[in-house]
């Protein structure tokens, strides 16, 4: 890089009055030459020497470099270019300079021709388009005028910088958002920040990738702060589509890297079309500290970036992050065991964790605060707030014990994996995946809702119509986003009719078979690395690929209810507030219906009874007959 962004980072405190002394003393050296050109040539060298002595004295008393020093060092200006910039700014800095310029050449603004004749060390290259003064728009371009006759006016943003005013170029402030460095980055993310700073020292572009985009920004923000820079984030889609306009905006960003000490983090995850990819190529050519966030594919024609993986926090670091967040300016009330449970279940990004801690400080239970921060981030799914409870399940006690064990596996994850050391053995298979298999209507989906409700989590049902795509590779990407979101918020992930996705791999006969097998292979790997609770339901266990069964912690078989179970289901079919008359659960249980059919018949009977205000036996019999007719049966058939 030819620019020096570190030159733009200065103390933000109010500068002493002496800050401008050296700048004005340097301008006085130029004014001596101006007055000589206006008809006062006698003793020029003596007056220049005296002015330069005053300049040296002013620099010796300055507590820090002035704005011109930072601009000249940052953009690599020659002595002549520095003098040209100062001469152009002169009328704005000292009003008398305009009169002196008018006396010399009849115009209150200098020209390049005047600078060539007046200033020492003059060289024609100073005003070429590729030279710093014009490349970074330190001076306004000459337009249609001749180069030597063009008026030299300094850009407003540059003028303010010369005087020590710090702000972001207004045109960039519309699309750029400042990122504050996180005050306490966990060790694994701090190591990623070190890799980013190393890449910048080597003048390479780091590519930050990971499952939690907010943490990518945290890492980039800390890396910028360690380098003495301020980070701004920009979406690549917000850059102008037209190449000339886009290049102009990127040059302004390069300029701000010096003037404001800025580093840039570009979100390029959505760069899929040719125009966004062209923007990525242009970004990679910037002469400034740049980081890319989330780009998964290399872009032809762009330099190879330095891959920086930003991992999920291991449980010990997550636990420490939760404790640190809760110990903020307004500490939240949470017990030690509750904190451990939350850290074991929820894997929020650092910004979301800080917000959850703030909510806890205002009286919201920590669990509920974390759950609320994870909602609304499940693409291609249906999110259900569970209402079913254990008493709604009619299952053998052995099956209930298996379901309760799944709850315990999630609730005590921190203790088992961290305190008892199981996570040290392997980084895979640390989640909980279970298969619910059995005939339709036997309670598989209801059991999933009960488990989610017992844990105080949302039930996220994967909508296959939204995640399965005909385009190669898109199904895996959609599923990856679902898994990542579920890991963040610790939602219970439900794959209903799982044999559709997790079916057996087939012999490869054509490209369709090959890519179908690739999808199954991806799911095999993802279900094993998933650290949350994933539930699969199926009516056809034999259709599942056997490799999935090995990766499942629990297989719960839901059997068709016998007469005793059906009687229990009928006794619970109507809520206590429903008025009923003449119902005999034992008699109703003689009809061969599964739990789902009984629930559907009870609801239908309730609608029939709503007309008269009472549900009676005839209405239930009618609803039951209609339910049997769905499968082509009637009373007396099985």
From TrEMBL:
InterPro entries: 26S_Proteasome_ATPase, AAA+_ATPase, ATPase_AAA_core, P-loop_NTPase, WHD. One of its GO terms (molecular function) is ATP binding. SUPFAM superfamilies: P-loop containing nucleoside triphosphate hydrolases. Pfam families: AAA, WHD. Transmembrane segments: none annotated. It comes from the Bacteria. Signal peptide: none annotated. Keywords: ATP-binding, Nucleotide-binding. Residues 430-562 form the AAA+ ATPase domain. PANTHER family: 26S PROTEASOME REGULATORY SUBUNIT. Belongs to the AAA ATPase family. This is ATP-binding protein. It comes from Blastococcus carthaginiensis.
């Amino acid at each position: 890089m030819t620019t020096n962004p570190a030159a733009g980072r200065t103390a933000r405190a109010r500068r002493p009055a002496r800050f401008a002394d050296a700048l004005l003393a340097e301008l006085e050296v130029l004014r001596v030459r101006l007055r000589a050109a206006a008809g006062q040539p006698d003793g020029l060298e003596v007056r220049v020497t005296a002015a330069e002595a005053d300049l040296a004295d002013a620099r010796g008393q300055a507590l820090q470099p002035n704005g011109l020093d930072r601009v000249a060092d940052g953009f690599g200006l020659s002595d002549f270019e520095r003098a040209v910039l100062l001469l152009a700014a002169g009328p704005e800095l000292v009003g008398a300079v305009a009169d002196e310029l008018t006396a010399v050449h009849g115009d209150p603004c200098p020209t390049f021709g005047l600078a060539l004749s007046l200033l020492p060390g003059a060289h024609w290259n100073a005003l070429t388009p590729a030279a710093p003064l014009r490349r970074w728009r330190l001076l306004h371009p000459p337009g249609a005028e001749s180069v030597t006759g063009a008026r030299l006016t300094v850009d407003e943003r540059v003028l303010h910088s010369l005087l020590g005013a710090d702000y972001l170029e207004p045109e960039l402030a519309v699309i750029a958002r400042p990122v504050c460095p996180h005050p306490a980055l966990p060790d694994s993310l701090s190591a990623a920040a070190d890799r980013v700073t190393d890449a910048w020292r080597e003048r390479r572009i780091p590519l930050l990738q990971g499952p939690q985009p907010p943490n990518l920004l945290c890492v980039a923000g800390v890396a910028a702060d360690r380098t003495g820079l301020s980070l701004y984030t920009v979406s690549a889609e917000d850059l102008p589509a037209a190449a000339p306009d886009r290049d102009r905006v990127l040059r302004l960003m390069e300029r701000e890297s010096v003037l404001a000490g800025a580093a840039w983090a570009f979100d390029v995850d959505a760069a899929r079309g040719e125009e966004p990819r062209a923007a990525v190529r242009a970004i990679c050519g910037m002469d400034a500290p740049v980081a890319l966030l989330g780009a998964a594919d290399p872009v032809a024609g762009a330099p190879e970036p330095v891959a920086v993986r930003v991992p999920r926090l291991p449980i010990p670091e997550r636990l420490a992050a939760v404790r640190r967040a809760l110990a903020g300016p307004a500490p939240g009330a949470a017990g030690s065991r509750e904190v451990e449970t939350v850290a074991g279940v929820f894997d929020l990004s650092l910004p979301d964790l800080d917000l959850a801690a703030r909510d806890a400080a205002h009286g919201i239970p920590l669990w509920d605060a974390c759950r609320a921060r994870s909602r609304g981030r499940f693409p291609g799914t249906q999110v259900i707030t569970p209402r079913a409870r254990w008493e709604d399940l009619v299952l053998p006690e052995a099956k209930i014990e298996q379901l309760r064990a799944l709850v315990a596996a999630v609730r005590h994850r921190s203790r088992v994996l961290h305190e008892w050391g199981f996570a040290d053995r392997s980084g895979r298979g640390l989640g909980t995946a279970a298969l619910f298999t059995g005939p339709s209507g036997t309670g598989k989906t209801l059991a999933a809702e009960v488990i989610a409700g017992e844990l105080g989590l949302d039930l996220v049902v994967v909508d296959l119509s939204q995640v399965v795509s005909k385009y190669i590779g898109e199904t895996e990407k959609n599923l990856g986003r679902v898994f990542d979101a579920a890991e963040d918020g610790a939602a219970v992930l439900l794959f209903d009719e799982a044999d559709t996705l997790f079916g057996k791999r087939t012999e490869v006969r054509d490209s369709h078979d090959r890519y179908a097998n690739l999808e199954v292979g991806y799911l095999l790997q993802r279900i094993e690395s998933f650290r949350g609770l994933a539930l699969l339901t199926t009516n056809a266990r034999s259709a599942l690929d056997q490799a999935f069964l090995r990766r499942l912690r629990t297989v719960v078989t839901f059997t068709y209810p016998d007469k005793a179970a059906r009687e229990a289901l009928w006794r619970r079919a109507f809520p206590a507030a429903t008025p009923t008359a003449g119902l005999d659960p034992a008699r109703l249980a003689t009809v061969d219906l599964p739990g789902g059919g009984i629930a559907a018949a009870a609801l239908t009977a309730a609608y029939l009874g709503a007309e008269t205000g009472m549900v009676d036996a005839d209405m239930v019999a009618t609803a039951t007959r209609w339910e049997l007719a769905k499968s082509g049966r009637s009373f007396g058939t099985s």
